[in-house]
Amino acid sequence: MNESLMNWLKDVSIALAVLLVLGRVMFTLTQTAAEFLRGLREDNKERNQHFEMLLGINQNIAQQTELTRSAIEQQTASLHPLLEAFKALERQVTHAESTLLRAVERRSASDGAVPASPEANPSPVDMAMDADLT
Question: How far apart are CA 118 and CA 51, in angstroms?
């Protein structure tokens, strides 16, 4: 055989060997990429399940927050009448205290004694208010 034919066959053999090796490398890379993508898909499924679970927890928290807000509003609404009743009771006590003081002063004046000042004889309401301030 002629030498140029031998060189050509040698070059073709080398080219075929390189093509076979490159083909095997490409096949391995493709197979690895497919496995990687399959793993990503499975990871994404798990991640999506976690997100769905977290979303459910978040929705439960939002519902509980709404229930708490509603309960606070109901408590506040029920406290307003109690506050008004307390203010009315405070006005009644103040009125009764002033009525008692006037009665004591009238009696003291009719007996000829010196009228008692509120500071000298504090009322139970004043004593309770002073105790709250200290």
Answer: 71
CB 115 within 8 A of CB 108: yes
Model confidence, pTM:
0.44
Give the separation between CA 113 and CA 109, rounded to whole angstroms: 6
Q: Model confidence over 97-132: pLDDT tens digits?
A: 999 998 888 888 887 655 555 555 666 666 666 665
3-state secondary structure of 119: coil
Exposure b/e, 118-134, CB count within 10 A at least 16 = b: eeeeebeeeeeeeeeee
Dig out the tokens for 110 from the structure: 């009719």
Distance CA 31, CA 118 (A): 99
Nearest Cα neighbor of 4 from 19, 12, 17 is 12
Amino acid 46 reads E
Query: Cα separation of 119 and 41, whole Å?
Result: 84
For residue 42, give both structure tokens.
């499975």
Q: Return d(Cα 134, Cα 130) in angstroms, integer.
A: 6
